[in-house]
Automatic annotation (TrEMBL):
Any Pfam family hit: Acetyltransf_3
MF term (GO), any: protein-N-terminal-alanine acetyltransferase activity
Cross-referenced InterPro entries: Acyl_CoA_acyltransferase, GNAT_dom, N-acetyltransferase
Species annotation: Arthrobacter echini
Protein name from the UniProt record: GNAT family N-acetyltransferase
Domain N-acetyltransferase, first and last residues per copy: 30-190
Keywords, sorted A to Z: Acyltransferase, Transferase
Assigned GO CC terms: cytoplasm
Keyword Acyltransferase found: yes
Family recorded in the similarity comment: Belongs to the acetyltransferase family. RimJ subfamily.
Length: 208
């Protein structure tokens, strides 16, 4: 369950580390996002208010950090530790949001990965690592991921991890300027008695 010690937290497996997003990450985060602008554009959240704007980087971090402190979200950056170095390269972002306690014990997970590092198993490894933490350490029962039907790369992530396809949600989120359909995928703790990470690492294709 949630406690004051639940955040901040770093999660690690091999060279991959999930760590909290920080104000001082703005320059590198912006550089990676700008380099991936075309890659991410079709899947980007947008504001349905024609006069509205998305939050700035600092507004985003402030909001996510406040949610993390009260057990409503886990805002991580996905990083890779460089061999023989203390430096870590930013390769993406993963956020567990909408955490609901009480009788639901559920959350929603979203992520993006640098196009230059796509196809190497980073996204499924990060999703498995975060989901195991939520199930095993926080006691959550259900994790949900919602994906555009056209987003083949993200569909491969939930396929690899064997998330259950729970069907289409018409016009679910405002994406790239319009209300967009999403497919909903989920796992409950009973679905993965051995966790997600261990079996994924044991069976992942060599090229990942």
């Amino acid at each position: 369950m949630w406690s004051a010690a639940s955040w901040p937290v770093n999660l690690r497996t091999g060279s991959l580390v999930l760590r909290p997003i920080r104000y001082r990450d703005k320059a590198i985060w912006t550089a990676v996002r700008n380099r991936n602008a075309e890659w991410l554009a079709p899947w980007e959240a947008s504001n349905p208010d024609p006069d509205g704007q998305l939050p700035t980087y600092h507004q985003m971090v402030r909001s996510l950090t406040a949610q993390a402190r009260t057990g409503q979200a886990l805002p991580f950056l996905i990083t890779e530790q460089q061999p023989g170095s203390r430096d870590a390269r930013l390769v993406g972002q993963l956020t567990v949001s909408g955490i609901t306690w009480g009788s639901a014990l559920s959350a929603t997970l979203g992520y993006w990965v640098d196009a230059a590092r796509a196809g190497r198993g980073i996204a499924p490894t990060a999703v498995a690592l975060a989901t195991d933490y939520c199930f095993d350490e926080l006691g959550l029962h259900r994790m949900e991921i919602n994906i555009r039907p056209e987003n083949r790369a993200s569909l491969r992530v939930v396929e690899k991890l064997r998330f259950r396809d729970e069907g289409l949600r018409p016009r679910y989120l405002h994406i790239a300027g319009q209300w967009a359909d999403h497919r909903s995928f989920a796992l409950t703790a009973e679905d993965v008695p051995r966790g997600l990470l261990g079996p994924w690492l044991e069976n992942r294709p060599r090229r990942d």
